[in-house]
Design brief:
Helices cover about 40% and strands about 10% of the residues. By secondary structure, it is of the alpha+beta class. The strands form five sheets. It has a four-stranded antiparallel sheet with strand order 4-5-9-8, with helices on one face. Strands 10-3-11 form a three-stranded mixed sheet. Strands 1-13 form a two-stranded antiparallel ribbon. The model has no long low-confidence stretch (mean pLDDT about 95).
Length: about 525
């Protein structure tokens, strides 16, 4: 009989969250252990306390922790929702499938199914282990899916199965398999760099190299002129690092995919020397920043190191066999690095988005909440709302405002009638999409905005409604553009639609809301092949 014991740290009893900590402990239970990679990799101690366990038992322990920890995370989330049912935003983190894909993404024949045996690649891979690993990844997605479903069940659904609250499911990255671990310090040593003058800080496939610059680093030893030489030498060495082992690559392949250097001023005496930034180099970045090509990763170097099949036997190799299989953090433009985005709820329409950016999520949430995004927020709100519902809500707001002198009341009624025509027309396919005669909706929205703008000394709420009408017209145009992108419509047609959208945005910025609505109509027409 073998016994495995997991220990966990208690939730810190910080005064600011003490009541929540006690509520979780009392109503959900003590903090559950997270699925621990050190168990399956046998790196919990030296020597490992799991050395005598067969792989299948360690994998079974890990899988049990996967299920229990995700259940616990979901229980904590549901407890919070039940305690605070009227909060505007609840943010929930589910750890899987991240951990399982790091551990089990063995889908490349160049990956050693036995990390201690470099020959267990290609035809020598263990097919039974590969099959088990595929099952573990499937389980990770299933438990994550079940967690989402439990949240949906908690908020309830309508007769069509649409959640009663807006629910967004997002991830922060994708995943790719890797076959080779890279040792950054071994790279420095092999290329003759003094590690007291240049140090490497790596994570996943990314590495920052910091030069011990005088006047910037505590105890800096490198003068500015030498900094320039070291920076260039680092760049050249990274660029020249290649892999020619035929077991892992076809021909000679560069190990690094991207390499960036900190910009330097023309004047070596500039006080900003060693502190300048660029698009890829931030203030805390290294003096050289580099990203590995997929298939390579800085994490996973084993102790003792395991030399790859047919690599020369050296004491401190740069490339070696890794002890796990999946990684992220590579070039985000690689398709396998793409994250997911699903959204459903009473304010969210139907459709498909070809591509979004992570920075678009926050402004989208703000838009759904009716909160203006500050100028400091990156990204743009996605066109996920239901424009027909938005117009209905604006119409209802106007009905509540009708009043004033006869001329003002007439303007209000004209605007309401125009919106009634927009909402009740046969131009809608559904709450998000227009039929071929959808330009009549834009015309009606423009009429409503025009009538409201003719009211003398309008209340701020009226001005806000006019801006919202233009914003809704923009949403209709963007939905059509997104649909055209997914349908692989002629790129020139899409570009023309995007140009009209930009013209509409410029009109909004100048206060010409009617002109903006007209531009958005033209954008919709071009995207819809009208």
């Amino acid at each position: 009989m073998r016994i495995a014991r997991s220990s966990v740290s208690f939730i810190p009893r910080n005064a600011a969250v003490l009541a929540d900590v006690d509520d979780i402990n009392n109503n959900v239970g003590f903090w559950q252990p997270q699925a621990d990679f050190r168990i399956v990799e046998r790196i919990d101690a030296v020597p490992s306390t799991f050395a005598s366990f067969p792989d299948t038992e360690l994998e079974a322990i890990y899988e049990e922790l996967v299920r229990e920890f995700v259940t616990y995370q979901t229980n904590v989330a549901l407890r919070a929702i039940s305690r605070f049912p009227n909060v505007d935003v609840a943010m929930i983190y589910i750890e899987q499938p991240d951990g399982s894909e790091h551990q089990f993404l063995a889908i490349d024949p160049r990956q050693a199914t036995n990390p201690g045996d470099p020959n267990s690649i290609g035809p020598n891979q263990d097919p039974a282990k590969l099959a088990r690993y595929r099952g573990y990844i499937a389980t990770a997605y299933q438990v994550a899916n079940q967690a989402v479903q439990r949240v949906i069940n908690a908020v309830g659904t309508d007769a069509s199965g649409v959640p009663n609250s807006n629910i967004l499911v997002v991830s922060d990255h994708g995943f790719d398999p890797f076959h080779t671990a890279v040792n950054a310090n071994a790279f420095l040593t092999a290329n003759g760099f003094d590690t007291t003058r240049v140090r490497a800080v790596s994570s996943g496939p990314a590495v920052n190299f910091y030069i011990n610059l005088q006047g910037r680093e505590p105890g800096g030893t490198v003068a500015r002129a030498e900094y320039l030489a070291l920076q260039q030498q680092l760049f050249n060495a990274l660029q020249n690092l290649t892999d020619a082992n035929p077991n892992y690559t076809h021909g000679t392949t560069a190990v690094f995919d991207e390499i960036y250097t900190r910009p330097v001023p023309d004047d070596i005496n500039d006080p900003q020397f060693g502190r300048q930034t660029s698009e890829f180099i931030g203030q805390d970045s290294g003096d050289v920043f580099a990203m590995l090509r997929t298939g390579y990763n800085f994490d996973g170097v084993q102790t003792p190191v395991v030399i790859r099949k047919d690599d020369p036997v050296v004491g401190n190799p740069i490339l070696s066999v890794s002890n796990f299989y999946g990684a992220h953090g590579y070039d985000p433009n690689i398709s396998n690095m793409s994250a997911i985005f699903f959204a459903a709820g009473p304010d969210i329409g139907r459709g498909t988005l070809r591509q979004i950016q992570t920075v678009d999520v926050a402004p989208t949430i703000l838009k759904l909440l009716g909160v203006a995004a500050p100028d400091t927020v990156d990204g743009k709100a996605l066109a996920v709302r239901l424009p027909k519902n938005l117009l209905t809500g604006l119409r209802d707001q106007l009905n509540a405002l009708v009043g004033g002198d006869p001329e003002t009341r007439r303007r209000y009624r004209n605007a309401v009638d125009a919106l009634n025509g927009a909402i009740d027309s046969n131009a809608w396919l559904d709450g998000s999409h227009l039929r071929n005669n959808g330009d009549m909706v834009f015309s009606a929205v423009a009429t409503a905005a025009r009538e409201l703008l003719r009211i003398e000394n309008p209340a701020p709420s009226v001005t806000a409604i006019v801006a919202a009408l233009a914003d809704t017209a923009r949403e209709l145009a963007q939905i059509a553009i997104d649909q055209a992108v997914v349908a692989n419509v002629n790129p020139r047609q899409i570009a023309a639609a995007q140009q009209k959208t930009q013209e509409g945005d410029a009109s909004v910025a100048s206060g010409d809301f009617v002109g903006a609505i007209q531009s958005f109509k033209h954008a919709w027409q071009r995207a819809s092949q009208q």
